[in-house]
C-alpha cells in the first residue's frame, strides 16, 4: 500500500498569510512576532481510508509524503461502563494504546505514535540529516520505535530520571541514539540539550508544537471521533503538558467544520494539568496570555512532584499566536486541575469500568471530566469526547515482555553546543 504526497500550503496564525512549504518550515519567515503556522489542505472534504492504512487512513489531512510501516490509528467507541456510572448519555472515548479487542495496536501504548508517524512521514525519503526530538517520555518512546522500525536516524533527548519510559518489545535499531540531561533535571533541560545540536547541519530540529505534522498527527484523535460519532463533539477533554494536543484538536475541528458534513460548531476545549505543576491552568484562571512568573528551581521541583511526568513542560506553546490561550478563547474553553490522588482514583475507575489500564495523564483527563460535570461546566446530555492518550501498557508488557533502552550519553547542562555536537556526532 502507498499514499500520494498530500497537497497543502502553510498559513501563519498571526497574519493569515498563506505560503508554500519549501521544506520542513515550522514558522513564517515574514512573521514579526512568534506564531504557529497551520497546514491548509487542498482537499476540503476528507476521504477516510480503510483500517489497513493505520494512521494514514487520515492522510488527506496529514502533511506527509510517504507511508511508513507499523502505524495504527486511534480508536473511538461509545462508553457504557463509565457513561452509566457518571450518568452521561453520549460519552465517546478515543483510545490510543494497546487494546487489540478494540482495534488499538499501538505498541508504545501512547498517542504520541500519531505524532511520530506523521512527522516522520513528512520527511523526504532521501533525507540524510538526523532528526532531533526532545521528550519527557512517551514522545521519546514513540519516535524511537517508529524511527527504529523504519531505519530513520534519530537523536532522542530525555531527562535521565525519565529513562524508564524508554521500554520496547525488543532492542532498538542502531540508527536511534539516546542522550540525557542528568538526574534532577526535567523536560525543559532536555529541550535545552537538544537545542544545542541545531548549530550543526548534520542535525535537524523536529520542531515540537511548531511542526504542523506533529499537531495534525495528534488531530487524528478528533477525526477518529467525528467519523464514529458522525459529528463534531460538543466538548473535548485531554490532559496537557504542552497543550499541543488540544491546539491540534481545535485545528482538526476547523477542518471538519469546513468539510461541511460533521456540523458547523466549535467544541468546548477543557484541558487539564496535574497539581502542583499547573502553569497554564494558573495563567488561564488569571486571564493572562503570558505564563505567570515561576522561578526555574520552583518549576523543576513542582515538575518532579507530579505523578504524570509527561505533563511537565515549563515552556509550552501557550502564549504564542495560535497557541493554547488563543484556542481556549476561540472555543469558549476552560481549564481543570487534578491532584495525584485524584488521578490515581480515575485510573482505577477506568480499568474497572472500561476494562483496560490507562496512563496517569489519561487519568488526569478523566478526573477533569468528572469535576467539570460536578461543577456544571458540561451537561449529561452533551456529546463528549474523552481523549485517553495512553493505555494498555500493563497488559502489553505482561503479554509481550520488554527491554529498557540505555543512555548513549549523559551530558551536563554546562556543556557548550560545540561539545554536545562533537560527542553526539561521534555516536554516528
Which descriptors would you attach to this protein?
428 residues, alpha/beta, Rossmann fold, 14 helices, 18 strands
Short recap of the structure:
By secondary structure, this protein is α/β, with parallel strands linked by helices. 33% of the residues lie in helices and 17% in strands.
Report on this model:
The protein has 14 helices and 18 strands. It has 428 residues and is an alpha/beta fold. The chain has a domain of 216 residues: 3-Layer(aba) Sandwich (Rossmann fold). Strands 4-5-16-13-14-15 form a six-stranded mixed beta sheet, with helices on both faces. Helix 11 crosses helix 12. It is globular, with a radius of gyration of 20 Å. The model has no long low-confidence stretch (mean pLDDT 95).
CATH topology of one domain, by name, is Rossmann fold
Major sheet: 6 strands, mixed
What CATH first level of one domain would be assigned? Alpha Beta
- Sheet-strand content, in percent, reads 15-25%
Tell me the layout of helices and strands.
Layout: E1 8-12, E2 18-19, E3 37-41, E4 75-78, H1 81-86, E5 90-95, E6 98-99, E7 104-105, H2 112-122, E8 130-134, H3 138-150, E9 154-159, E10 167-168, E11 176-181, H4 187-195, E12 203-205, H5 212-218, H6 220-229, E13 235-239, H7 244-259, E14 268-274, H8 279-285, H9 296-305, H10 324-330, E15 336-338, H11 340-354, H12 360-374, E16 383-388, H13 393-400, E17 403-404, E18 409-410, H14 417-425
Parallel strand pairs: 5-16, 8-9, 8-12, 9-11, 11-18, 13-14, 13-16, 14-15
Antiparallel strand pairs: 1-2, 1-3, 4-5, 6-7, 10-17
